Amino acid sequence: MCVSCVKEEYPDRESICLDTGSYMLNFVGCAQCGDKHGLTVVNRQTTEDEDGEETITYQHICKSCNHVIANHEHLFRVEDDYQIYEMLCSLCGRSDDQRSIMPCDPRGPKPEQPDLE
Fold this sequence. Notes:
Blueprint: E1 39-48, E2 54-62, E3 68-79, E4 82-89, E5 93-100
Antiparallel strand pairs: 1-2, 2-3, 3-4, 4-5
């Protein structure tokens, strides 16, 4: 993980939990070679434990020099009647989310997010 390559370490992404891709708005550029144009995802692995928790891990690296920008981790599990998602990455941020597995969420609709305009 390279803190010099990101604008903000582990930004709060609220409920946005990505299991693919890169949060390019948080990418300053490669601290090693200076390239600001692209990242590649490598070493993607998916594992599942005996409880059914799925973990996806991969690395964001610089396309030009293969410098490791960040390590990405995405977790998924089912608890009671909810799907639980978590993400932790110095580039993409930290977040968690819960979704009901029922057709209608027994907690009711999620509160609307304020406009960020």
